[in-house]
Design a protein that fits this description.
It is built from seven helices and eleven strands. It is α/β, with parallel strands linked by helices.
Length: 211
């Protein structure tokens, strides 16, 4: 939801690719709000791909769904935006659930390989909008291939008294402007969502279904 809100603040247009779309929530929301977008979603896990296709049909949205590995897929043409909430956890203590492992751990989509492939798929002024582990900001900067440059950065804090856990960032080819550091996003105030978080969930207006 937070990546959806962050991406919505920029002038989305043209061809958009979501990498690792899961059940498709992010792209579904963006297509709903920006009807003229040409949206493609790629998802490597068969089970999640089935949910993605189902959700596209249930919401009657004109989007393309691909099942495959982003790093291996031969895409046609260039994209104006690549949007992703990629797997970013490191470490050896992993869930026994295969779907969760693939969705969460960086080894299934290494950062450097992702940036290199994404950079090759972007149009001349193309952009990447993504979220990542806030502790990995140095890795993001070090691994960015030219001419990609960070233009926007926002940190998400679970509570005002806690350290940031996520970062939301916009990366743009051939950008020359300095980085804009946006105000912090706070998840909770006391036992409830913060005012901003509540507004984001309300704007998304999603319905979850247990299976």
């Amino acid at each position: 939801m937070f990546l959806y809100d962050f991406a919505s603040k920029f002038r989305l247009r043209g061809k958009v690719l979501e990498v690792g779309g899961g059940c498709g929530v992010l792209s579904l929301l963006l297509k709903r709000d920006f009807e003229d977008l040409n949206v493609t979603v790629i998802e490597k896990q068969e089970e999640m791909y089935k949910f993605l296709v189902k959700n596209i049909k249930e919401n009657s949205l004109d989007m393309q769904a691909l099942r495959g590995d982003f790093l291996e897929w031969e895409f046609e043409g260039k994209f104006d935006f690549i949007i992703t909430n990629p797997p970013f956890y490191n470490g050896s203590l992993k869930s026994e659930n295969e779907i969760l492992k693939v969705a969460r751990y960086e080894e299934y989509l290494p950062m450097k390989a992702f940036f290199q492939k994404a950079n090759s798929l972007l149009s001349e002024r193309g952009e990447i909008i993504m979220c990542y582990d806030s502790k990995r900001i140095d890795d993001i900067i070090l691994n960015l291939p030219k001419p990609l440059k960070m233009t926007d950065l926002r940190f998400m804090y679970p509570r005002i008294t806690k350290n940031a856990t996520l970062l939301l960032t916009r990366l743009k080819r051939h950008a020359k402007s300095a980085v804009t550091i946006h105000p912090p996003l706070i998840g909770f105030e006391g036992a409830d969502y913060s005012d901003e978080a509540s507004k984001i969930y309300k704007k998304a207006a999603c319905k979850s279904v247990k299976i």
